[in-house]
């Protein structure tokens, strides 16, 4: 299937879901473990019918779901179709969604020599240099946040090696930035907003508040 554009995803009108870096994310407030398990079972049946399967995290008060078409490298119509069906299942069971609560965290490391440092970080984080996939270290077990390498010039100064990329829904970004600034932070660079806004804490440690818009 063809990979969808940001406009197509927005126009799909999936109120229960938000796109973060690459995937669609949904949080459903099941309230207890048994209710969550029953919901996941119903979602699994729908996924089998569609031959398309979400990543699922079942906790006591809610269920988190992530949809992506790995073969297309992004979102396709089958993701939107299954997301809509999952929302129907939730409504049938009286389960509310909380899409503004979804987040994703990535680590970013500046480097001028990916070939030198990439295999090391893949080996120490994921147990094998083979976990280096392009510019990313991907943990096949899903336990660690993705580490991606931001290419920089060798003589670039001043240079911060690590920073965080926080992926949040676009309708949350402005509020989150205001809250962080009120808590002592500052905006370093908002020239690329809403794609990303760079914030810093009082000691200069940086985080990028990222959305999927304008990318």
Automatic annotation (TrEMBL):
UniProt key word NAD: no
E.C. number: 4.2.1.96
Primary enzyme class: lyase
Lyase is among the record's keywords: yes
An individual GO BP term: tetrahydrobiopterin biosynthetic process
GO MF terms, alphabetically ordered: 4-alpha-hydroxytetrahydrobiopterin dehydratase activity
Lineage: superkingdom: Bacteria
Glyoxalase-like domain mapped to chain residues: 107-210
UniProt xrefs under Pfam families: Glyoxalase_6 (PF18029), Pterin_4a (PF01329)
PANTHER family: PTERIN-4-ALPHA-CARBINOLAMINE DEHYDRATASE (PTHR12599:SF0)
Similarity comment: Belongs to the pterin-4-alpha-carbinolamine dehydratase family.
Name used for this protein in its record: Putative pterin-4-alpha-carbinolamine dehydratase
Species lineage: Bacteria, Bacillati, Actinomycetota, Actinomycetes, Micrococcales
